[in-house]
Design brief:
This protein has about 190 residues and is mostly helical. It folds into three domains: about 60 residues, no CATH class; about 90 residues, no CATH class; about 25 residues, no CATH class. The protein has ten helices and no strands. The termini are far apart.
């Protein structure tokens, strides 16, 4: 909008204007296609080619929509969200928060308890202990508290690389008590034969 305003083209987008100069309308469209990403460009090329006012209207409806299909799609995304074993929790939480914020912006009431339940539902079986702890609490956690619990749980259950290195590097070769040489056990000693 600021870009169009600077070019003095914003006036052509006002809803009160019934008639718009065709040249101005084309100029608005030309400016829009220069600043849009591929997804937005595909949207307006399909629905409002060479029509700046309609292109802007379509973009506004698409991105600020509170319509049922968009709300249903966001709920579906939230309900089907899954955290994979090999992925860290950050990407999982970001995807969930993105859907939650979009739903809230669309006028839906998403409580922290519902958001937490949806995040719990998508966790893999390795998080069953955390699921039990969270669901058995006397007082419900806020979403922020749950995210902190999730991060802490994941960090504490993840095998630490340093521990693995320490365990393998501290192993000494076995000592034979018969010949007092390193590298084999007494039962495998050549002096037995």
């Amino acid at each position: 909008m600021g870009h169009l305003n600077r070019l003095k083209l914003k006036a052509g987008l006002k809803k009160e204007d019934d008639e718009i100069d065709p040249q101005r309308n084309e100029d608005i469209f030309a400016e829009l296609i220069q600043v849009l990403d591929d997804r937005s460009l595909a949207l307006i090329m399909r629905n409002a080619k060479d029509d700046g006012r309609n292109a802007f209207k379509n973009l506004r409806e698409h991105y600020l929509s509170q319509g049922k299909p968009k709300i249903i799609a966001l709920y579906t995304e939230l309900f089907t969200l899954q955290k994979h074993e090999d992925k860290d929790f950050t990407g999982y939480v970001i995807r969930a928060e993105k859907a939650i914020v979009a739903l809230r912006n669309g006028g839906e009431r998403i409580s922290d308890a519902l958001a937490t339940a949806m995040l719990l539902k998508g966790l893999p079986p390795t998080f069953d202990t955390l699921k039990a702890i969270v669901t058995q609490r006397d007082t419900p956690q806020t979403l922020m508290e749950f995210k902190a619990s999730l991060r802490s749980y994941e960090e504490n259950t993840k095998p630490k690389m340093e521990d693995a290195i320490m365990k393998t590097s501290n192993k000494e070769p076995p000592t034979c008590f018969r010949c007092n040489k390193y590298g084999h056990f007494t039962k495998n000693c050549n002096k037995n034969r």
